[in-house]
């Protein structure tokens, strides 16, 4: 038999209302009463009837998360963080991937009927501000990523300019002077790349280093194969780089392979920094120095803001909320045997 609130109240010797207050985390319950109810909940293995609760509130208990690429470990790890945060709020996550395509991103907003989901967390690559006007969106929405648009939705992001500047400054502090950048994107949707390039420029300028256009390498797909190809090209230059800042970890891992194939050493001949701190970065040989966004915090912020909007308890204007980041220094810049720091 499934235990009910009445069963728990009878076991604890309290009212059903008191049990309900404990289950819902209300503050106005004495500590002794809370302990009695909690003991009864555990003894009876009480499980809340979430579907009934959501129906009473006119909710489904489901939020949608739409990310560009499932095969990119960064987005997979963001997905994991969102799922963990949503679970803590009692929500299930419906996961979809868009391949960064305009049609698929639009389908997330229009094809998922509001009676099936309670809200959406979206990382848009192709949709623009016009597509994301309130009249186009039927459910509460929170945005992820670095595409800054003047639209009335909460947006969770990191300061990519500052982060790229920190990564480049680290290479300069290690004595490197010909620092290449892999991941340039000259497209209207390449906002992340634009911001990271700006931070790279700022660090070079502050150090009095001249920019060499030969060291700027484009990449349309931020994957390992692009990293290999870009690094192979850089190594053919008359003056190859002594360091490389890659705009994501997959590019850096590909670049590492090309450096190895050329018989060069990391970091002695070429130091390497990535971006994202995917799990593979810690276990690569050599381990990869990388800029680490706080993915757990991104997930927590996205879900918390979405839940507040869904509950109607937060009526302030839309915000841009920055999550923290840190530089994880490893063997690809510090040398063999270096520990995370």
Describe it for me?
This protein is of the alpha/beta class. It has 3 domains: 5-48, lambda repressor-like DNA-binding domains (434 Repressor (Amino-terminal Domain), Orthogonal Bundle), CATH 1.10.260; 58-158 and 295-325, 3-Layer(aba) Sandwich (Rossmann fold); 160-293, Response regulator (Rossmann fold), CATH 3.40.50.2300. Helices cover 41% and strands 16% of the residues. The protein contains 13 helices and 12 strands. The chain has a 6-stranded parallel β-sheet with strand order 2-1-3-4-5-11, sandwiched between helices. A 6-stranded mixed β-sheet has the order 7-6-8-9-10-12, sandwiched between helices. Strand 8 (243-246), helix 10 and strand 9 (271-275) form a beta-alpha-beta unit.
Relevant terms:
alpha/beta, 341 residues, Rossmann fold, six-stranded mixed sheet, 41% helix, 434 Repressor (Amino-terminal Domain), elongated, 3 domains
- How far apart, in Å, are the first and last alpha carbons? 53 Å
Per DSSP, the total helix count is 13
Strand content: 15-25%
Strand count, sense and barrel status of the largest sheet are: 6 strands, parallel
